[in-house]
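Please decode residue identities from the backbone states below.
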């Protein structure tokens, strides 16, 4: 079973599913079966930047940034959201 679970992890990588997510899914399945997966309370987070998405896309389309530091600075200037939040959102 461990080999099968490991194989499934590799199959999930192209879909962008992380190893910890696969581990949680396997653990829920082992404990509760398919019904457990149907009832799992999936949580998603919403970025503060979603409200600014259209204006930021337009701003960067008109004047593309050259570095991630510039992206962070310009987002903070345009939205007031600090640069550390911006870098986490950009996964840097």
């Amino acid at each position: 079973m461990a080999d099968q679970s490991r194989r499934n992890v590799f199959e999930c990588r192209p879909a962008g599913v992380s190893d910890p997510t696969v581990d949680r899914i396997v653990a829920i399945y082992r404990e509760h079966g398919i019904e457990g997966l149907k009832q799992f309370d999936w949580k998603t987070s919403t970025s503060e930047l979603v409200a600014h998405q259209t204006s930021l896309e337009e701003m960067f389309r008109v004047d593309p940034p050259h570095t991630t530091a510039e992206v962070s600075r310009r987002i903070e200037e345009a939205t007031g959201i600090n640069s550390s939040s911006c870098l986490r959102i950009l996964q840097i």
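Observation: The two ends are 35 Å apart (CA to CA).
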